TrEMBL record:
Cellular component, GO, one term: plasma membrane
Pfam family, one: MacB_PCD
Any one GO molecular function term: transmembrane transporter activity
Residue ranges constituting the ABC3 transporter permease C-terminal domain according to the UniProt record: 272-392, 731-846
Transmembrane segments: 267-293, 316-343, 363-384, 409-430, 450-473, 494-514, 727-752, 777-797, 817-840
Membrane topology: Multi-pass membrane protein
Location (main, coarse): membrane
Annotated spans, Disordered: 57-78, 569-589
This protein's name: ABC transporter integral membrane protein
Sorted UniProt keywords: Cell membrane, Membrane, Transmembrane, Transmembrane helix
Residue stretches making up the MacB-like periplasmic core domain: 19-236, 497-694
Species lineage: Bacteria, Bacillati, Actinomycetota, Actinomycetes, Kitasatosporales
Length: 854
């Protein structure tokens, strides 16, 4: 009980000094809890949607998946003749045929895409009684004929659609127009899909290409019949060649794709939260180390009057426990706020998430509290252990804890060993023969060098700080020398404070090097390999009518088709490969200049011929002249002669196996031939600008596809990498904010620790302005120390990662010096910002009171 009272007294006596550590704990816990609440809410939203839209039993084509489109671009379908058979099955109350297609684009009269840009699907289909259960028609009526369409309310609101507006639907089967005759609102939250409904005959004809077909049959159970029993009865009524699912099975399947997407988001965000926690550990260690040092005399008195080492140790740990509890409780509350903020942000981007579905499970606050408290207590263990080892006489005699030279030597040796082992791992990774092998070594090297730099930080602080000070501080005379001395006074503290900033900046530097190298490598590869003037692609396969519009565009010397086919290859050694093949026009050999290690690509586009990649050829012992058996999905089996082996050292189309469009047509029925995945075009000599403008105009009616010349393509690639890096930098900002709090806390506690010294300096003539400048310079030096270590370490990681990327064809290393220098200079401003409050408080000290401080 005495230990608890002492801890409570010390905690509240230093509540101002604990505040920043509590904020660090709060931010880290908030990010974890916010991530969990956000992902749980998204799961709840999709669960409600899938549960409400699933019928008791659903009959689908065998092998069909909810998020899968067959290679011919049309949804997998069932014969409508199955419907009467299902209706006759036992326990069937009703059965209804449904049509649903996701590989569609809907545009308004101005050719503006009515779909969402956030990746949510555009769904077109027929209006069924199942839809009527989950949606309310808020205006107009359901579609009744071929020129009528009904749209969901969210899409109508987003694009300001109203009754009477004309919409054009583009599918693989063709284009057709219809006027809006109704608007329907979901009874549950629609996460963002744009949904369009037609009458059944129109949906069959325009989306599936023929009447008499359905994509699903929805079956409703009679009163008293279970879904499982209904499924069994429907299965018995059919011949077993169809996929039959209960409502739960259907919802679970729909959830699989969502779960994969959500797990990526969840674990990525939790990873950044873990980085913030790691940075926060240094802040907590520094805080308690300095508080223990400031209370050394007090600890000595406690020991002198009978307190044991365990009691002193326990007292410090109880303070850490209180800090962890307070910070974690605040973090749980802030996490809910972060989740709501993320939901609003996603809604602004097009994914609708309602706060009505806000989900806070019992495990979320428990996880936040346990994580925050455990991390805080563990971080405070070393300072607590150090406090317990202080002897009464040493504490009463000294103003601070004595330095342990032997511990420092052991620490330095451990740090050197870890850093050396990590450096060796990075070197080995950079010289690996396979990227998969090097990736493990890279991960190990990153962890070891990071820990090694953290451990060896105090040793590095002496030399690095002196170098930085010689460059930056000597010009400021005595004040600069005082700032340098203060930064060097406690190397362990400086090392820990700088290490917190080092972690975040190391990741920034590493990702910057990797991102810049990827862009530079891809740009170099495009310059070297791409001969086409224009590239056309989108987030969907290119529908035939868009292909025809492209082919009719004036000013083009040739247009190249590029189709990806599902196929199983059997090599001469008898091994099978299911990665498929690519069918292209012979002009593709000019559009993408793929070097060959044997044979020529021109020959590969001949009759019953193909090419393979060098990796495949090496793995299976394939040579030019060998025969490969290719079993086309939905088509026949062909025996094709290998006419070329392409070099897989580049990144573009690595591993692709080519054959001609004519060879494909020989073995694949017309109704199974896929639309183009991408198309290429070459302008006639001297007509590049005119052809570019004409091609854009020709495809203006198809906004789902983008026309890019090589300059556009390079810029798009740069933008995509830049957007990804900016998102990562934004998440890393949390760790950097926590690191800044660490600098602030270290300076604030350091000022308190040096109160008497500051008073004496002021008494002998140091002005307030000089004092504030001294503290600001000390902060800048610490920040630049952390930045220098972090940027150097990150560039080493990034360079090693690029060496592995080179094995995948991205062989250009580019150091983004502008970014690196900008971050380094920015770190100086971070140091200045962190010193504002401590410097202001130091300047306001009363000189006499400061001198009188014990």
């Amino acid at each position: 009980m005495t230990v608890l009272k002492t801890s409570m007294r010390n905690f509240f006596a230093h509540k101002g000094r604990m505040a920043l550590s509590a904020v660090a704990v709060m931010l880290s816990v908030a990010f974890v809890c916010g991530t969990l609440v956000f992902t749980d809410t998204m799961n709840t939203t999709f669960d409600k949607l899938f549960a409400s839209t699933a019928s008791d039993v659903t009959v689908s084509p065998k092998g069909a998946k909810s998020d899968d489109t067959p290679q011919n671009g049309k949804p997998a379908s069932l014969p409508a003749a199955l419907l009467p058979q299902v209706e006759k099955a036992k326990d069937v109350k009703s059965a209804e045929g449904a049509v649903s297609a996701m590989n569609v684009t809907v545009v308004d009269s101005a050719n503006k895409n009515m779909g969402n840009s956030d990746g949510a699907p555009t769904i077109a289909g027929n209006w069924t009684s199942s839809d009527a259960r989950t949606m309310d028609i808020t205006s107009g009526h359901a579609p009744r004929g071929p020129t009528e369409v009904m749209v969901d309310a969210d899409t109508a609101d987003k694009h300001d659609l109203k009754l009477g507006d004309e919409l054009r639907t583009i599918s693989v089967a063709g284009d057709f127009t219809a006027r809006i005759v109704g608007v329907a609102a979901f009874k549950v939250t629609n996460p963002g899909a744009a949904v369009f409904y037609f009458d059944t005959a129109t949906a069959q004809r325009e989306l599936l290409g023929a009447t008499g077909l359905f994509t699903q049959i929805y079956v409703t159970a009679a009163n008293g019949a279970s879904d499982a029993q209904l499924k069994q009865n429907v299965t018995q009524a059919l011949d077993g060649t169809f996929k039959i699912q209960t409502a739960k099975e259907n919802a679970d399947e729909n959830r699989q794709g969502i779960d994969q997407f959500m797990n990526v988001i969840k674990y990525a965000m939790l990873g950044f939260a873990g980085i913030a926690f790691l940075v926060g550990i240094f802040l907590i260690i520094n805080t308690f180390s300095m508080l223990v040092a400031q209370r050394t005399r007090e600890i000595g008195l406690m020991r002198a009057i009978g307190s044991s080492r365990k009691q002193v140790n326990r007292s410090v740990l109880v303070e850490a426990l209180l800090l962890g509890v307070v910070g974690s409780i605040l973090g749980v509350g802030a996490g809910v706020g972060i989740a709501i903020g993320l939901m609003k942000l996603m809604s602004a981007a097009g994914m609708n998430l309602s706060t009505d579905d806000l989900t806070v499970t019992t495990t979320t606050p428990i996880a936040g509290l346990v994580l925050g408290v455990v991390v805080t207590v563990l971080a405070a263990y070393l300072p607590a252990r150090r406090a317990g080892k202080v002897s009464p006489m040493a504490a009463l005699r000294d103003a601070g804890t004595p330095a342990d030279g032997r511990a420092g030597l052991v620490r330095g040796l451990i740090g050197l060993v870890l850093t050396g082992a990590g450096t060796f791992a990075l070197y080995t990774a950079a010289n690996a023969d396979k990227a998969s092998e090097g990736a493990l070594l890279l991960g190990g090297g990153v962890v070891l060098t990071l820990i090694g730099f953290v451990v060896i930080g105090p040793l590095l602080a002496g030399g690095v700080v002196r170098v930085i000070s010689a460059v930056l501080l000597r010009a400021f005379g005595p004040v600069g020398r005082l700032a340098e001395r203060n930064a060097l006074r406690n190397p362990r503290r400086t090392g820990a404070t700088g290490a917190a900033l080092m972690i975040g900046l190391a990741l920034v530097a590493c990702l910057s090097v990797v991102g810049s190298s990827m862009v530079a490598s891809a740009t170099s590869e495009l310059d070297k390999s791409v001969g086409a003037d224009f590239i056309v692609q989108g987030n969907q396969r290119i529908v035939p009518q868009a292909q025809q519009a492209m082919e009719r565009s004036p000013g083009l010397a040739h247009v190249t088709s590029y189709k990806e086919l599902e196929a199983t290859l059997t090599s001469p050694d008898g091994k099978k490969d299911t990665k498929g093949v690519t069918a292209a026009d012979p002009s593709y050999a000019k559009d993408l200049r793929r070097p060959t290690t044997a044979g020529t690509l021109t020959a590969a586009y001949g009759k019953d011929a193909m090419s393979v990649g060098s990796d495949y050829a090496k793995a299976h012992g394939v040579r030019v002249g060998d025969t490969i058996t290719v079993a086309f999905k939905g088509g026949e089996t062909a025996r094709l002669k290998v006419a070329a082996v392409t070099d897989d050292s580049g990144a573009l189309d690595k591993g692709s196996r080519y054959l001609s469009i004519e060879t494909m047509r020989k073995y694949v029925p017309a109704d199974q031939i896929p639309p183009n995945s991408i198309m290429f075009a070459k302008a006639k000599d001297g007509q590049e600008k005119q052809a570019y403008a004409a091609l854009k105009e020709s495809l203006d009616k198809y906004p789902q596809y983008q026309v890019r010349d090589q300059t556009d393509y390079k810029q798009e690639l740069k933008n995509q990498v830049g957007q990804l890096l900016n998102m990562v930098y934004g998440l890393l900002a949390l760790a950097i904010i926590v690191a800044v709090l660490g600098v602030v806390n270290t300076l604030a506690l350091s000022v308190v620790e040096r109160t008497r010294e500051i008073g004496l300096m002021r008494a002998i003539g140091l002005s307030r302005r000089q004092l504030r400048r001294m503290i600001r310079m000390e902060s800048v030096v610490i920040a630049l120390f952390g930045a220098l270590l972090g940027l150097g370490l990150g560039m080493g990681w990034g360079t090693t990662a690029q060496k592995l990327l080179a094995l995948e064809g991205l062989g250009v290393l580019e150091i983004p010096w502008t970014t690196i220098i900008g971050v380094f200079i920015g770190s100086a401003f971070v140091g200045l910002f962190a010193a504002l409050v401590p410097a202001f408080r130091a300047g306001r000290m009363n000189v006499l009171n400061a001198i009188a401080t014990e």
